[in-house]
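Notebook B, p. 112. Complex prediction, attempt 2.
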Amino acid sequence: DWNSGNVIAEQVARIREQVGSGRVICGLSGGVDSAVAAAIVHEAVGDQLVCIFVDHGLLRKNEREQVENDYVASTGVRLVTIDAREQFLNALAGVSDPEQKRKIIGREFIRSFEAAEKALVAEAAADGEPIRFLVQGTLYPDVVESGGGTGTANIKSHHNVGGLPEDLQFELVEPLRTLFKDEVRAIGRELGLPEVIVGRQPFPGPGLGIRIVGEVTADRLEILQDADAIAREELTRAGLDQEIWQCPVVLLADVRSVGVQGDGRTYGHPIVLRPVSSEDAMTADWTRLPYDVLARISNRITNEVREVNRVVLDVTSKPPGTIEWE
Ligand code: XMP
């Protein structure tokens, strides 16, 4: 019968056998899968592993700190963070079309990851211990979906900016290949990873970039990060995390409406709450959140986020509405 301790022990042995004394790299996305995959590999080969984390500025509030501080403290993983915020903002300037945004974010992600990867590869080669392995957090459902091929990177094409192009220079290490999501979370907990990472709900690779309807700017990102953090905090406090598949918070950046806040009339932006219940994200229903929780979220956002003067609730199922607004 299934036991996370056994799975970890098995994988650790398998990884040691596969990589020997070779060096390994892994991209961390901030999500559950890459975090757990890297933690198992680190358990197996320690500092032969180095992780790369690209901060593209489209992350949720405090996500970078959670990886840099909490994750590193609990795993001891060697981490290189790339600050690519400027690069992404520049590339996204003037762009409102959702698919265009996805393309740009995907392209810039690969660009910055590969630059970091090259630098590490060169450094390791100069040391006489080349990097020969790449960790991927491929899960069992991904393997099935892509026809069960082995040894290559199988990433759903329109998803996962965190996924990389098939990189033939590396042999893949895939410690989660036989596992389902809830098993991955159990293993993460067994390895002592922070709950903020292990319990994380699905979050799209392009991040907040596709939750700002309109052009992505630094100011707008900050507004959305603040509103999103409040919504998540209140949902967690109300004990609703298990009930909700995910709850996108969306900034309608090109829409303004009149409000009264504090002493005067304001002309601010609406924030949309999109709580959904789902099994697999293919279909979804809007979650019937308790009114008092909605009221608290609305009050706090309009009090604490100056540029937002209206909070609206999306009550559309999928289909016809997708979960994300873009
Ligand atoms: P939709 O909006 O298509 O979303 O109903 C279904 C699920 O996929 C996530 N999603 C994405 N994930 N890159 C990702 O990695 C993307 O471009 C992307 N678009 C949507 C969404 O959060 C939901 O869980």
